[in-house]
Every structure is written in structure tokens, then in C-alpha cells.
Amino acid sequence: MRIVLGVGGGIAAYKVASLLRLFTEAGHDVTVIPTEAATRFVGVATWEALSGHPVSNSVFDDVHQVNHVRLGHEADLIVVAPATADLLARAATGQANDLLTNTLLMASGPVLFAPAMHTEMWQHPATRANVETLRGRGAAVLEPASGRLTGSDSGPGRLPEPEAIFDAAIALTQGRSDYQLPLAGKTVTISAGGTREPLDPVRFLGNRSSGKQGVALAVAARNAGASVRLLAAHMEVPPPAGVEVVEVETALQLREAALAAAADSDVVIMAAAVADFRPAEISGTKIKKRDDAADPVISLVRNPDILHELVEVRDAAHDQARRSQLIVGFAAETGDGEGDVLAYAEAKLRRKGCDLLVVNHVGTDKVFGQDTNAVVILSRSGSEPQEASGSKTEVSTAVISRIGYELNHVSHRA
Q1: Looking at 130, 164, 180, which one is the last position of a domain?
Q2: Of 249, 256, 298, 257, nearest to 274 (Cα)?
Q3: Distance (Å, rounded) from C-alpha 350 to C-alpha 147?
Q4: Residue 361, CA distances (Å) to 215, 237, 272, 275, 399 in order
């Protein structure tokens, strides 16, 4: 596929180098057209090296090839990232004062804009009108991600992660409607891994969780356009690029981090394996094994129910935005003589009060540390249970897709 990649003059231009790499590694032929301002952030040499093509932003270079006409005509897809407020305005008003805007006017295929700018610029009526104009003409304009911007500012206006833009671009060329990204502009907090409760400076009570499923969820949420915060508890896999990472060790630390992160989150997914109990006392020195001493007795106390507390805080909030927050729990269950996995999970869903509960049937050789998974998604709204299986990436995609559906179609939380 022949792609024209237009690069606007914003600080997020450095991220577009990764987007270019994704396109070329997928076998696409990419011509990069940066604006003059964009070359102040990333030089022409970088774009030429990564694309394998000469790079220019002037209509007067290679005039004999009539590039200002040819590039738009030949492109199967045009992607503009970052699409700054200025670039959106010039595109909406049909200006043709550089090679990129000329190419946009000559486009015969789909066009995708990935905006990035400060929140006030994105929310300004002029920018919103320009976006609606472009959409009205058939262009796809993604919603920006929400999160840290230049300086200390934070809010909607971040460039979506390169992987999310790539997925949206491919979806657009395939005629799919999911190019809008179901979690665009949303902030998602995800816990992953397993907590450890110290007995002494050497030993701890822990579990078999590797963090693979939580990391896969973070990738899927990021690729769906969300700004992702990962609460990482002793993961065996590295966190993905493009997400904020908060490291925790114990259940109490995870509780503190989760309550703080939930304050500005649209979605909270508690996928970490949290210890139900912790030692009542922690020895300051290693517990010794002595022949003349009795076997130690370890007393346990109950850890707080973080998921239930998140629901209580959400439901007690006065502002509508917080009350519409979607909370997702994970249940690692085993059946016994008194009930099967789903029976215990349905009881847990009622007890916790979360909106969705993702249920695993776990065991020594099931789920923990594995690359595959099989889950059932239960909903508080009473809809039919949804099954998902395959790789943990595939399961995560199904969970995130269900979350997007709940956010856009289910209003029982409001």
C-alpha cells in the first residue's frame, strides 16, 4: 500500500518516527511530507533514513514530477500525525501553501488525522468546527488521548500511541468502522501482576501471577486510544511502551495507588492477583530455623477489599463523571464440592458490585504464567455471559472491546 505520512509541527512529531517504522515493517511504501515547522522537531534526514525516500515540503522540489498533484493521486492512504490546530485549520479551509496541504487537496483515497495539541486548543470552538468540517467531507479525525502534555499540563490533547494510529489507519483502509478507536480520549487504570506480603526481610507470601494478562490488557487499551496507567506488582514481563507505570509491592500499596489513580480514570481494571491475607506481624530480622525452638506460627490478617472499595468510592461520588466510571474486576476461581467456578464468580460479582467481572478457572497449570487464557465476562447489567479464549492478547482485545461497548451503550452506572 502506498501511504503519504504528513507530519505536523508539534512536539509529538518524535512519536511519528515509530509510526513510520510500523508502516514500513508491515510492507507499506511510505512517503513522508513534514511541514516546515515539523522539521524543527525531527530533521529531514531521519524521515529519509526511515522511509527510504527523499523528503521535501516544497512544491518547487522535483517540479518535473508534479509532486503536488501526483502524491495525492497515487496514495492509497494519507495519515497526518501530529495534526496540529494550525494544520487542521489549513486543511479545513482548503489552503495549499505547502506540499502537504496541496497533497491533501489532491487526495483520492482515505485520509486520517491524528490530532495533538494543548487541551485548550483542542476544545476551542474554532478547532472543533474545523474537525467537524473535515469529518463532514469524509476524513477520519481521531480523538486525541488524554494525559500529560508539554510542561506540567494534563488533559485531552496527547497524540494517540503509534500502535493505535497504525491500527486505526489499517481499519480505515479496510472499510471498518472501528477506526474511531473505542477508548479514544479515555483514561484507563489497570493493575497487573501479583502482590507480595513480607514475612521478614527475606520471605514473603505471594502468588503465581506473572502479569502477562495485565500487560496484554494495557497494550489493548493503549491501541484502542486510551491513556493507560499500569499499577505493576511484581511482573515477570516488562511493561509495554506508551503507558505510565506505577510500581507497587503489597496489597496496601496497591490499594493506595488504585484509589489515587481512580480519581481521574474513566475505566479501572483490577487484573492483579491481590493477596487476601497478610502476616499480622513482620519480623525485622530473618526468622531462624533452630533445632531447640518450636515451629513458628504465622498469624494472618485480612487485606482490604480494593475492588469493593473502588466501587463504594465511585458510587458515593457527587460528580456525574466519576459516577459513570466503569470498574472491571478479575476473578481467579476454582470449583469445589459446594459450587462450580461460575457460581462462585456470580456471587462475587454481586458482592463486589463492579460492572464487569472477568472470570478465570485457575489451577497449577492453568492461566498463571501461561501465554493462553480462557475467560467468561459477566456483567452487572444482566446481559448474557461472554466467552473469550486464545492468546492473552486475543483475550485482552475481547475484554477491551467489551469495555468500549459498555461505555458507549450501557448507561446503568449513571
Answers
A1: 180
A2: 249
A3: 33
A4: 19, 22, 15, 17, 16
User: Which residues, listed in sequence order, are joined to residue 145 by a DSSP beta bridge?
Assistant: 158
In a domain, 216, yes or no: yes
Asked if residue 14 has pLDDT above 90, the reply is yes
Q: Are the CB atoms for 270 and 307 separated by under 8 Å?
A: yes
Same domain, yes or no: 171 and 235: no
Give yes or no: residues 205 and 307 share one domain: yes
How many domains in the chain?
Answer: 2
- Tell me the average pLDDT of the chain: 88
Q: Where are the beta strands (DSSP E) in 334-383?
A: 356-361, 372-379
Range of 215's domain?
Answer: 187-409
Structural domain includes residue 414: no
In this prediction, residue 414 has a pLDDT band, given cuts at 50, 70 and 90, of very low
| 381 shares its domain with 261 | yes
Rounded to 5°, angle at Cα 412 from 410 and 414: 105
Whether residue 198 has a cis bond before it, omega within 30° of 0: no
What is the set of active-site residues? 207
